[in-house]
Amino acid sequence: MAIRTALTERFGLEYPIVLAPMGTVAGGKLAAAVSNAGALGLVGGAYGDPEWLERELALVQTGTDRPWGVGLITWYATHEVVDLILRYRPSAFLLSFGDVRPYAETIKAAGCTLLCQVQEVETARKAVTAGADLVVAQGSEAGGHSGIRSTLPLVPAVVDAVAPVPVLAAGGIADGRGLAAVLMLGAQGAMLGTRFSAASESLTHERARERIVAARAADTARSRVVDIVRDYAWPAPYAGSARGIRNRFLTQWHGREDELEAALETEAPAYRQAVVEGDVDTAVVLAGEAVDLIDAVVPAGELVQRIGAEAEARLQVGPAMLP
Fold first, then answer.
1. Which helix (H) or strand (E) holds 16?
2. What are phi and psi of 256, to 5 degrees?
3. What's the rounded Cα separation, in Å, for the pair 284 and 299?
4. Beta carbons of 132 and 168 less than 8 angstroms apart
5. Cα(105)–Cα(131) distance, integer angstroms
6. CA gap 190, 182 in Å, rounded
7. Are 217 and 292 within 8 A, CB to CB?
8. For a FRET experiment, which of 29, 138, 215, 247 has its CA 20 to 30 Å from that of 196?
9. Are 3 and 308 in contact (CB under 8 A)?
10. Residue 64, helix vs strand vs coil
């Protein structure tokens, strides 16, 4: 069996599941594995590093003959990076965190489906006006950056605001129960990040995957610390919203952001080295509240099938609740 929605119809998917385009995590191998399993894999273009993008886009392009896509952080994007990505002919292009209008026409003219991730109802309306083909309503339970609205009330509000444009849900979804739940809220699918960050094909360091498996939601926190040490000046209202798993570094500097900025000459190089080495006491592992639901590192294809099958089972239970 499979689940049929506007998302699955548009891309010919088996399940309405989308891989969140997590920067430095969702590479070409992971995106291809998700697409090959019957979902939609998105490469995490993040801040638009051309060398990284060319390597990972080549991997996904040769790794699957199914639809796949790319995501960028909108406020940091450039026309040059957008053009680079479009040369690889993705089926989908997701923009998040910023004004999509400078890029929407170019993306759609290339025959690419435009997905816009939003964190507020009014931003969703603006995305549709700009040409969004699908809107992703992201709740604050997500790992990395997000807004302040929770997924459960945000999704149906966005569904109502932008109908008939299809809406996907993101933030705190890691299994088939979450997928079934957001489908009942009116979403046409779900975008999952943290669950796939712990997939065996992800670019997540092995120690970081272990940290995700061991963590609980109470271990996560939102902070500016990660942005400061990486020298990314996130604009309002997203500044300070990066959710990650508390570690020694986050505990040391949270609440002392001014001191961290003054110490960047030594702290920034040490942090970059910690990322490379998988030192998760220093490098903060970005992850959402759904860590409670992750108990093992699993291949992405197996995750897609497991989540899809569980959602089917949950949806079939529904009619039995009616008299």
1. none
2. -125, 40
3. 23
4. no
5. 8
6. 7
7. yes
8. 247
9. yes
10. coil
Kindly report, residue by residue over 202-226, the tens digit of the pLDDT. 999 999 999 999 999 999 999 999 9
Domain ranges of the chain: 6-203+293-321, 216-286
Fold of 6-203+293-321: TIM Barrel (3.20.20)
Q: Count CB-CB contacts under 10 A for residue 82.
A: 21
The predicted-structure confidence for 37-61, as pLDDT tens digits, reads as follows 999 999 999 999 999 999 999 999 9
pLDDT single digits (tens) 259-310: 999 999 999 999 999 999 999 999 999 999 999 999 999 999 999 999 999 9
Adjacent-strand bridge partners of 280 = none
Using DSSP, state whether 275 is helix, strand or coil.
Answer: helix
For residues 147 and 122, the answer to whether their CB atoms sit within 8 Å is no
Structure tokens, 277: 């080495």
Asked whether residue 240 carries a pLDDT value surpassing 80, the answer given is: no
User: Could you tell me the pTM of the whole model?
Assistant: 0.96
Distance CA(65)–CA(36), nearest Å, equals 8
pLDDT band at 1 (very low <50, low <70, confident <90, very high): low
Structure tokens at 283: 């490098």
